[in-house]
Amino acid sequence: MNEPSLARPRKGRGSKPRVDVAARRREYIQVASRVFLDKGLGAATMQDIADAAGVPKVLIYRIFPSKQALLDAIRDFVLERIEIAYQVPIYGYGERAREIVHAARVCPEAFLLVFRYGQTGIDQPDWAEALRRVIGSYTLVRWFTPGPDAPPGAETRARYASRLNVGPFLETLIRWIEAKDGLDDETRLKWWGRIQRQFHLSSREAYRLGTMTVPPYPVQDGGG
User: Fold this and answer.
1) What pTM did the predictor assign?
2) Are 71 and 143 in contact (CB under 8 A)?
């Protein structure tokens, strides 16, 4: 008896190549982010994005059924990678920012778009809140957990202190990704590290958060 063949059946002449939807999705996110940065979220259209991608608009709509769905996908793309970066162990101030910048280099346009509009909350207010949640929740736990000797109301003060760091952090990430100011990664790491360490310790003192339950990072490693 003949054994069944393990060879794949040949494709007929009329068969179409399989589309890598994930790769196409990433491509459209990158192109769309570039267009949104150039034209603005309100002015840019799906036709603009299709033209920049060199494809019919219908192909964009097959993956993203609306402009808002595309914007949501860009936001989620960035937030997912920030959350992954926050899972990487770090040993000094500044290293967290460096991890996020490394993640951003896969698609810097998307990160710049979300960070810029997330700073202001204009057009996409949920971006600002999402960034405050992701970044602020980390600093709240790592930096601003009230000590056992903190005066009453410390939890509220800690939440406020943790959010104060978000704006300067985003601005630094934007400048770091753009890399237009002449600083290399190691110089920026040490500079931002010193700023973050001082912000951490000074804020704990100002907001009366008591004795630290987790020691601060070493300053010589650089802010994060």
Assistant:
1) 0.86
2) no
